[in-house]
Design a protein that fits this description.
55% of the residues are buried. By secondary structure, the chain is of the alpha+beta class. The chain is globular and about 65 Å long.
């Protein structure tokens, strides 16, 4: 059985309908809080269920004949609705349309005549991991659990990939050899014999709509994403920085909590920088948010923990490093403060920058599709970003397909990061390792990138759409971990912008309609007309937090010194310890993004916190019946959803992928 405490929050393992799966279920021991079975009676899904009375996650399952369905995460499905869906399922492909219609952010697991389908979300907030144990494929939403079941070793190349200044989503894989990530656009299919295959279920919509056509769809998708996180008569927390990511959420949350007869607590973090103007726009929004059920909270500068405050304190309960290591103490304290105010969820504007705006690579696509309009946009962008004509023309002339581009990035992996005034029209941000990574570690990652490049395929046909999806999935991985961190402390962080339906609504709009050199987030402005007052839609600036960063770094240099005094990364041969300490504390290389330090802090912290799960011996007879704890075949707190009439108990703005 497990010797270490359960990971915080719910978890599950999905098992094939074969005898060896019974042995795997037994190894998980007393820490299994629920067991759902295949029609054969063998275990299908085991784990710990979300509690419907606290937090935000909800588990609902249904059974009809030889079909069983489980939806777990953030959603508004009832047991009767899921049972109705189960009646209509004859094949795993029948679930594609269902998955395409789900609002919120949830895992979908199915058993159909003993065949298993497991999938997460296209945005990557809900991830699915897989490994082979006792000769059969199993899946889970936690990579560390599979690593222990499979006795998998750490993979040094995958660890090195996490040290990149910005790790693309394709390289945010489990950190153990033999444990793999199911692509976010695909489902895992496991036959009754334990063999598996990957099948795509999601693809980005065509980018065909103009702003006026796409705005109503975005408004509906975002409103529904907020609504599924609002429970009847409950209190919800929401960021209200005054920007065009968090402010729309607060207005939509005000509507949703009003309908639900609940309460809304808005949160703004004060900044000491006198040039920062978030407070001006947040105050305007507060004056326009009417309702007796709304209260506003402003944390004064210094009232919440600084950046870097706890970077040396191991963060337990995570199955991969969190890129949000720098503000982790602030995340925890905000969750506690909101919980003290009665809130169970914290809506954040993170994700708005990724899905609403479009990175400059859209100009590369636009030049070929609408050259006249591209010239206008290029003129505006060059004036803002001070691109030289020669550098711009070179970037536009680059027509390399994704695989060729990736191979070239492998050769440049140890080169300096491009200067800030250079146009970046590539498929992703440049792949660069910091100078403290050892030559051997860099060589291993270079070889891996070369190997992948030959078969690499982009997420979408155009660079702009590929980059949007990649950045959304990068952030989705960070939000997934932040949910674990904040859920253990109080109000669970939630990012509605990363719901699949919201991502699709944005991707359906042509990139030149989503972004413009002259208008800030024009698609959001159009979508919120009539919902937000015009005074809150007119902002054309964005808060900048470097002052907050440097104050925290100066005050908590001791945390950096402690973290890198004897780095475990050096013991693994991945970094040069003296170089890392020197550059982190006194001579950070000019032009190197601070994200490189964040990545290294995150991996070092995770290595210190990592603990193996202790499991029962795998020597139980394979044909022995599975032990089913109290509540077997239904999640704790829920009656079996095949009973008629059953319904379950339902319980920021940013420039880089870092929460404030």
């Amino acid at each position: 059985m497990l010797e270490n405490p359960d990971p915080p929050g719910p978890w599950f393992v999905a098992l094939p309908d074969c005898p060896s799966a019974v042995r795997v279920a037994r190894r998980l021991g007393d820490h299994v809080g629920f067991t759902l079975t295949h029609a054969s009676g063998r275990p299908w899904v085991v784990g710990q269920s979300p509690d419907g009375s606290t937090g935000i996650a909800t588990a609902v399952h249904a059974r009809h004949g030889t079909t069983a369905l489980l939806v777990t995460g953030t959603h508004a499905l009832t047991g009767s609705q899921l049972e109705d869906r189960a009646r209509r399922v004859r094949h795993h492909a029948d679930l594609d349309g269902f998955a395409d219609s789900l609002a919120g952010s949830a895992h979908l697991v199915a058993s159909i005549d003993g065949a298993v389908r497991v999938q997460g979300t296209a945005s990557g907030v809900r991830r699915v991991f897989t490994a082979t144990v006792d000769g059969c494929t199993i899946a889970s939403d936690r990579a560390d659990l599979l690593a222990t079941l499979a006795d998998a070793p750490l993979d040094p190349v995958r660890l090195t990939a996490r040290l990149l200044a910005m790790t693309p989503s394709s390289l945010t894989e489990p950190l153990w050899s033999g444990v793999d990530l199911v692509p976010a656009d695909s489902c895992l299919l496991i036959g009754a014999d334990g063999r598996s295959r990957i099948r795509p279920w999601w693809q980005p919509p065509p980018q065909e709509l103009d702003r006026a056509q796409g705005a109503p769809a975005l408004r509906r998708a975002l409103a529904e994403a907020v609504a599924v996180r609002v429970r009847d008569r409950a209190v919800v927390g929401s960021d209200l920085s005054g920007g065009l990511d968090s402010t729309p959420l607060s207005f939509l949350a005000a509507e949703a909590t009003g309908r639900a007869r609940g309460g809304l607590v808005t949160v703004r973090i004060g900044v000491a920088d006198p040039t920062h103007d978030d407070h001006v726009w947040a105050s305007k929004a507060q004056d326009l948010l009417d309702g007796d059920h709304i209260t506003h909270t402003v944390f004064r500068p210094g009232e919440l923990p600084d950046m870097f405050e706890d970077v040396a304190r191991p963060i337990t309960g995570l199955d991969e490093p969190t890129r949000w290591i720098r503000p982790v103490a602030r995340l925890k304290e905000t969750a506690r403060r909101l919980a003290a105010a009665g809130a169970y969820v914290h809506l954040t504007g993170h994700g708005g920058d990724e899905v609403l705006a479009v990175k400059p690579s859209y100009l590369h696509d636009l030049t070929r599709r609408r050259p006249g309009l591209a010239r206008e946009h290029l003129a505006g962008m060059r004036a803002m970003r001070r691109w030289s004509a020669s550098a711009t023309l070179r970037a536009l002339a680059d027509r390399r397909p994704y695989g060729v581009w990736l191979a070239a990035e492998a050769e440049d992996l140890t080169k300096p990061f491009p200067p800030a005034n250079q146009p970046l029209f590539g498929w992703e941000y440049p792949l660069r390792l910091p100078p403290w990574v050892t030559a051997d570690a860099a060589s291993g990652l270079i070889d891996e990138l070369r190997r992948r490049a030959g078969a690499a395929q982009p997420y979408a046909p155009t660079r702009a759409a590929h980059t949007t999806i990649d950045l959304a999935r990068q952030l989705g991985a960070a939000v997934r971990l932040a949910e674990t961190v904040t859920g253990a402390e109080g109000a669970v962080l939630q990012a509605p912008y990363l719901d699949d339906r919201v991502l699709e609504a944005c991707l359906a709009v042509r990139p030149e309609e989503r972004s413009s050199p002259w208008t800030y987030k024009p698609l959001m402005v159009e979508a919120m007309r009539g919902t937000m007052p015009e005074g809150s839609l007119n902002r054309a600036t964005k808060g900048e937090f470097s002052d907050d960063f440097f104050r925290g770094q100066q005050r908590h240099r001791g945390q950096l010194a402690e973290l890198f005094e004897q780095p475990l990364l050096a013991g693994l041969g991945l970094v040069d310890g003296p170089t890392l300490r020197h550059m982190a504390l006194s001579a950070y290389p000019p032009g190197l993004p601070w994200g490189a330090l964040d990545s290294t802090m995150a991996v070092e912290n995770w290595l210190r916190a990592r603990a193996r799960w202790g499991l029962a011996p795998a020597d139980a007879p394979a044909d022995a019946p599975a032990t089913e704890p109290a509540g077997a075949n239904h999640a704790p707190g829920h009656q079996p959803s095949h009973q008629p009439g059953h319904e379950p108990n339902h319980g920021k703005d940013r420039r880089a992928p870092q929460p404030r």
